[in-house]
What does this fold into?
Amino acid sequence: DTAVSQTPKYLVTQMGNDKSIKCEQNLGHDTMYWYKQDSKKFLKIMFSYNNKELIINETVPNRFSPKSPDKAHLNLHINSLELGDSAVYFCASSQAGRQETQYFGPGTRLLVL
Amino acid sequence: QQQVKQSPQSLIVQKGGISIINCAYENTAFDYFPWYQQFPGKGPALLIAIRPDVSEKKEGRFTISFNKSAKQFSLHIMDSQPGDSATYFCAAVKAAGNKLTFGGGTRVLVKP
It folds into this structure.
């Protein structure tokens, strides 16, 4: 009965590889987000989707591509991984227009070697 | 450019003491101010939130104070407990926008 789930929980990979992180929410929310949390715990939004439509795209390298097959899923694909991509990536969701109340997933810890 | 500035970065409090975290914002278009709590290895979770037309909101041991003219708000954790040890984030949101802008976070450690 997990509200927002992410897979995998941990991801260790080599520089230059391509990887994907999956996110699913069963809350019936219309809006989903991807955040990056760096080693200093700073949380920064990357993308936001509302009903499968991209509405926020912060200054994120083109190597990061979100995909929303339906409003319950928002996946993140990362091409040509770099050392600086090492971070914790959080998926979150909210009701449309209720962005102050977001439900976060458990995070995916990405380590690029 | 950090739109929401949070201080201190870390805080150590004795059990039973008061933890105080302060935030300041620049954009007057922000109209909702939530606080999120994050335990190690977990995602952030909404703790308490306030609108700028209210000067104070209390939920259990957690109180938000809001000073609209100074563009500042703060979180007070009364009777702090070891289980409150976590990272706390203030945030701000514009109704017309679609994103939370987070402060830099405060790591709170409550010693028994």
Q: What stands out?
A: The CA atoms of residues 60 and 96 of chain B lie 31 Å apart. The two ends of chain B are 38 Å apart (CA to CA).
